[in-house]
Amino acid sequence: MATITANITLNTDITNYSVSESMTMRKLGSTSGLDNATGIALKKFTSTSAVTIVEQDEVTASKASKVYMRNSGSSKEDFFYVSIHVNSAAATGTETIGKLYGGDWMLIPYEGAINLTVAPSTASDMTLEYGLFYE
Amino acid sequence: MAITTATIDITSTDLGISLNASTNLSKTGTSTGLEIMDAGYGEVTVAHSAKALLEASAVSGDRNTSNYFYLSNKATDETYYLIVKLHDTIVGRLSAGDWMFMPWNQSDDVAEVNITATNGTCAYEYAVFKSAYTLVDSTPA
Q1: Fewer CB within 10 Å: N-end or C-end of chain A?
Q2: Domain for residue A3, yes or no?
Q3: B21 close to A (CB below 8 A)
Q4: Contact A29 B98 (CB under 8 A)
Q5: pLDDT tens-digit map of A18-70
Q6: pLDDT in tens, A64-80
Q7: Does some domain include residue A110?
Q8: Span B53-102, pLDDT tens digits
Q9: Residue in B11, B30, B72 closest to A21 by CB
Q10: Domain carrying residue A73
Q11: Which residues of chain B make contact with A5, given a CB cutoff of 8 A?
């Protein structure tokens, strides 16, 4: 059994709200840790075409998988669309999660029922950092 | 201009993973910090079925913007988890003690964030940071 720990800190001066949380990634309904990770990968993009980053069949569906992504650029104008997408080339079957601007990151649980895709907002060089953690 | 910073680190000695990242959350397409947020605590029971934790804006100008969403499942029984959906699409299952952080596009007025408790009541904490929010019309008397 592996131990994978993820910590988040949120601080804002909009109000005095702050969060500092730690979690150990575990199998669904269990105290046992997730055993598998793809490692942290980097992918360079040079077009705006959508690309599948995580295929649904990489994990068992309806478990406690997690996906990390980060736009490693610094532009606050350029972004990656991140979507739950049936097919990276399809125009339908999509639920857009959101936009990752330069430096932005996300860590979400992943159902593993539909692919996760990204599409850069520009054909200029952009790089995505990502990793998959799964049972 | 407000400053909101989100920092993550992920480590696993077993798997040889160590990363750290930090970002300042900005308004859509700019480096100007977000100035709108909402946060709170609550609990959702199994009997509640799916509940909309965050409604997408009914105003088109508020949508397809830069927004960020944080959710933590405060349940302590490891068998209790939250199913998190964007409208009717499952994003994933958030186990007791787990948290998530993601951008939230609000692609349309039904791109709400839903949560469903499974196996037992889940207390939760959430926060949302937004680029824009248009007040809705008051309800006539």
Answers
A1: N
A2: no
A3: yes
A4: no
A5: 999 999 999 999 999 999 999 999 999 999 999 999 999 999 999 999 999 99
A6: 999 999 999 999 999 99
A7: yes
A8: 988 888 888 888 999 999 999 999 999 999 999 999 999 999 999 999 99
A9: B72
A10: 36-134
A11: 10-12
Burial (CB count <10 Å: 0-12, 13-18, 19+), residue B60: exposed
Q: Cα distance from B139 to chain A (closest Cα, Å)? A: 29
| E-assigned strand segments in B3-140 | 4-12, 17-24, 36-44, 51-54, 68-73, 81-86, 89-95, 99-103, 113-118, 122-130
CATH of the domain at A56: 2.60.120.10
- Residues of chain A in contact with residue B14, where contact means CB-CB under 8 angstroms, are 2-4
Model confidence at A91, pLDDT cuts 50, 70, 90, reads low
Q: Is A66 on the interface with B (CB under 8 A)?
A: yes
d(CA B14, CA B5): 29
Touching check for A23 and chain B: CB below 8 Å? yes
Q: Does B19 touch chain A (CB under 8 A)?
A: yes
Residue B47 phi/psi, 5-degree rounding, is: -65, -20
Residue among B10, B14, B98, B95 nearest A2 (CA): B14
The answer on pLDDT for B44 being more than 70 is yes
- Please tell me the total count of domains within chain A: 1
User: pLDDT confidence of A94, banded at 50, 70, 90?
Assistant: confident
CB of B110 within 8 Å of a chain A CB? The answer is no
Domains and CATH numbers, chain B: 36-130 (2.60.120.10)
Q: Which of B7, B15, B97 has its CB closest to that of A23? A: B97
Question: What confidence tens digit (pLDDT) does each residue in B108-136 have?
Answer: 888 899 999 999 999 999 999 999 888 88
